[in-house]
Each structure stands twice: as structure tokens, then as C-alpha cells.
Amino acid sequence: MSTRAEAAGRAVALPYGGAPAGDAEMGAPASRVDPAKARQRKLPTPKPLTQHGPARVIAMCNQKGGVGKTTSTINLGAALAEQGRKVLLVDLDPQGALSVGLGIPAQQLDRTIYNALMEPGTSLADVRVATGVPGLDLVPSNIDLSAAEVQLVSEVAREQTLMRVLGPIRAEYDYVLIDCQPSLGLLTVNALTAAHGVIIPLECEFFSLRGVALLVDTIDKVKERLNPALEVSGILATMYDTRTVHCREVFSRVVEAFGDTVFQTVIGRTVRFPETTVAGQPITTWAPTSSGAAAYRDLAKEVIAL
């Protein structure tokens, strides 16, 4: 087992002294200090770019659903664009949540990421669409992509299909963010093979923590067999609620196990995120002064500094 997988195992195995999820303080004095707030430092403003590309490719990956993966892809992309970076978002989930979250009617589109992956004459440039955010483009997805998982099995070098189609377009962008589906199937392996780094959104909840070891083990296998340049860019704590001992306890375990691999930025729970999905906008434009928008701007600064 790799060092990172062992660290994930230790995070689950550490003694647990907190209260169940949703409980109040329950009189645990050591847990009253917010570990997320204690780690926060002032982040420098990124320098403006004089030219763009080639893009750094980052896979947003977690095999557990509902951890804020798509929300983080949208809002990190928008925050990077605010910093003057050109960003391409790639929706690699047949559910098409990334496309819906940006107000793109992917189910009505004739060409999506599926066509770019499976049709030799179609490129990502042919299927990408502009979003309402300057500097932010999207390669949409819909249910058609579910067929790619089966069709790719018989392809030569099937794990490298996405990497090949990304190649010609990387020079136009500074960042490519891939929103992976909540599984460790062939599409996710394609994303990891094409990526330079992986951001793991991790809900501050115990059962989310249990799945990290499996994910890290998959990342290490892809690094060993397919993509030697692959690294874990960071673990992003999401849905953080400072009012519960459980959230703080889980976050402390993750930091103890993974150290500086955990982003300083923590994404808190807020009703603003569900609102942005309905609005089809990132939180940086829907609620630009909210705490959620500020958090993703801080995350963008951390990603740029990597």
C-alpha cells in the first residue's frame, strides 16, 4: 500500500472523540477550537499573465457522490477566470451536472464530449461552448457519454483517449478542470491519465473519509502504470460546518494524516450553492460578496500558487 493510502487508512483509524454528525458541542473542550480557522493564512494576490497556456490539467475526483465535486469545479473555474486565467471546464459525467450548473442545455446539444472522444473527425474545439463568465469555456456532457464507457473498452490505448483529444487545445488555456463522474471507472481513469494533478473534494463527514484510501490507491496505480507525472494537488474540505464537533473532528483527522496536502481553504455549508445551480451561474457572479465566493477565490489563489 502506498504512503498516501496508508495516510488515508490512518485518518479513518484515528481515535474518535467527537459527537455524531449534526450534534452540538456536547461539551468537548478540545474540539471548541475551529481547526480550519486555525490553519488560515493571508494569501498573496496572483500576478497577471502576459501570455496563456499550455494548460495545467486538473481532475476533480472522488468516487463518492454529493461531496461538492461539480460545485467546486464550476466555482474554482470561475474564480480562476476572475484572476485573468483562461479556463476550460470538461464535463466527464454522463449526468451532465456541470453543464446544467452553468445553464447549458446539454440534453439539447447535437455534439458533446462524447463526440470528441468517440468520433475521429470531431475535436474538443468543435464541441466547446462559451459560458456567461469571461475567460471560462465548457465542454458539455449528457447521457450519451454513458455509452463511451462501454465503447472505449475495445479501443487501443483506451485509457489515453481523453489525453489525446485534450492535446491540441491545451495551448489556448491556462487550466483545464475535469469534473469526473462519481465512480472509478474507465472515464475517471481517462481523466487521471490526462491530468497533471488531482483535487479531491472531501465532505467533512466520516463515511466520506472512509473512501479516500480507495481513491488514493487508484491514483497511485494510474501514476505507476499510465501517468508518472500525476500528483495529488490537494484535498479540499467541503460542506464544512464549524458548529458541529463531527465536522471539526473529521477535518482534524484529514489534516493529521495528509498535512500540507490539505488546502488551507475550506468550503463551508451555505444555502447559496443550491441557489447557484438553479440560476445556472457560479457563486462568484450570483452572490459575489458571499462567504462561498470568497472561499473559492482563496482556493483559486492556492491553485495558482501550486
Automatic annotation (TrEMBL):
Region annotated Disordered, chain positions: 16-52
AAA domain: residues covered: 56-232
UniProt-listed InterPro entries: AAA_dom (IPR025669), DNA_Partitioning_ATPase (IPR050678), P-loop_NTPase (IPR027417)
Pfam families xref list: AAA_31
Coiled coil: none
Superkingdom in the source lineage: Bacteria
Protein purpose: May play a role in septum formation.
Family per similarity comment: Belongs to the ParA family.
This protein's name: Chromosome partitioning protein
